[in-house]
Amino acid sequence: METSAFNLFEFQRRMVDVIAWYAAKAPITDPENGLRSAELRPPAGLETPTERSWGAYPPDTDFSAQREYSRRAHLEEPKVRRERQEIVNEIARKRRALLTSAQRAAVPKTDVLGGGRLVFYDPDQNLFDGAAESASEGFFDVDNMPPWDLWLAYCIEQTRHDWWNSPGETYLLAWVPPDFLELANAGIAVNPEECVVWAETVEAETLRLLRGAGFLAPEPFGKRR
What we know:
- It is built from 7 helices and 5 strands.
- The chain has helices at residues 8-25, 49-54, 63-75, 77-101, 131-135, 181-189, 205-212; strands spanning 43-46, 117-121, 151-156, 170-176, 196-198.
- The longest helix has 25 residues, at 77-101.
């Protein structure tokens, strides 16, 4: 998908791909490992090469180093977002190539979501508390991320705010299969910072487009953002 604009047609293709990928693996009884295929594994989750180059956040006693760390992070924010988007794009490319090579046909569905739902994950609002991991039996990991087999798109909103890393400005969208809706909901319910929520509860430019295309409820349900 393009870095500068959301491509609805490509998103629709990815939705078909991810449902077919899941159907080929089902039934899955292990929510922690069954949806994190080695073939699709990203090198470091959504952490990018640029973020890894920063190293650990300086200790509280080193204010000068903290200021320099924050300054660099702010300057390199656009690069980090593009790298995150490319991580998700690469997973989508690999998934499609593997489906094609295995001649796995898409499973016909009357519902564009195959009975599942879209989940929204904002890595910049994450407290990394692990509560969602425990409640969802590993469907979400310790960083509150959904499993990479189900990643669809990393969205960069075109309407920017006046502050850095404002909630909902960039985010990951993933699919939750019908078999895992209950576990995912349990994880979302205990996530205090709401970095992971159901996509239909969020107001954002890209999500309005998806709502119009039938991927979300007509109106935001239980709006949180």
